[in-house]
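Archive entry: two folds, one per protein. Generate the first.
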Amino acid sequence: MSGLPILRWPDPRLSTVCDPVALDEDLDNLVRDMFETMYAAPGRGLAAPQVGVLKRLFVMDCGWKDGDMTPMVCINPEILRADGMAPGSEGCLSIPGVLAEVMRPERILLRYRDIDGAVQEVELDGFEARCAQHELDHLDGIVTFDRLSPEARRVVEEAYSVSFPVRPA
């Protein structure tokens, strides 16, 4: 795999609330590297803390695996509105091999700054809404396991620990 190394759970940086991105920060190289990493993984979204950068930034492209590239760079994102709730299967590049059913709003209104610093608002639904919420969770120090009931979490953590045992530091 090319690109940046992706942190794996239980790395403590994945549980850290990220700092806002300053408007004058040069993010071009980081964003390029994050897209390269995401596509190579292959994933549909990647948050900065997953590559060890504790800033409020994520990239996503929900269409590329189906042929239509739809890259988005979301800087300092926030959900302004969320509607409807539905379960959905989610995977995570930082928790490889684990799929978990997570309840999330079906539709969101997302406000963020793009790579040029312009404020954007976009309505997302279905998988795009789920992906954006998953990546935004990473910026708040939340991983998929944190969205599960205690019993469901125990089951998926056990399966994960068999595949990726935690090694003492």
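Generate the second and append.
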Amino acid sequence: MKKSLIILFVLSLVLTLPNQSNAQAFGGKGSKTLLVGLGFSNYPTIYPSNNNGLGSTYSPLSFNIGLQGEIGIHDYIGLGFTAGLTFSGSLDYNPGVHPALHHNNIYYNYGNWSTIGIPIGMIGNFHFLQLIADKTGKSFAQDLDVYAGLALGAGPSFAIPKSGSNVSGDVGVIFMGEVHAGIRYYFNDKLGVFAEVGQGRSSRLQGGLALKF
């Protein structure tokens, strides 16, 4: 009886121990991660020159809601998507009238528009902290994931006239092109937090929740 209890205790202990192959912050090939974050972005935006919109390229500082999904295709590499919503005050094209910004001989003033953008793109990440941990035989990558990657994409941007203005709306295009670096920390095998910064043709700073599946 005593021996049976010991066997049952050992079995229960083994079954409740975490699986070390799944205890890594980045789970490698077949792993799935979803990031939901808030932050700020600076995407290049082009509106057509049709006398209704802004008629040039500019990069507004925007409040950003972001969603990223990543699937591991290798022990240290993941591919996925990025999407989001950006919200910003916009720029009113007024040549020579109290310029707030001068770009390509065109003067802009903050004024008549607010904008909503929908960036959509592809991402690729290299999780180098996991590689270092594996090569050194250390366990510091069980909860912590540090990575770098690329993001490329585009999407529509809507210039919405502010209340009381005498202008009409317009539809343009925003572009995403950046090198980014990020860090994720997991409290358990499902839930964590992340921070990510990107810089290139576009720029972005974001943080929020990281979910593993």
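Annotation attached to the second fold: Helices lie at 2-16, 128-136. The first helix runs from residue 2 to 16.
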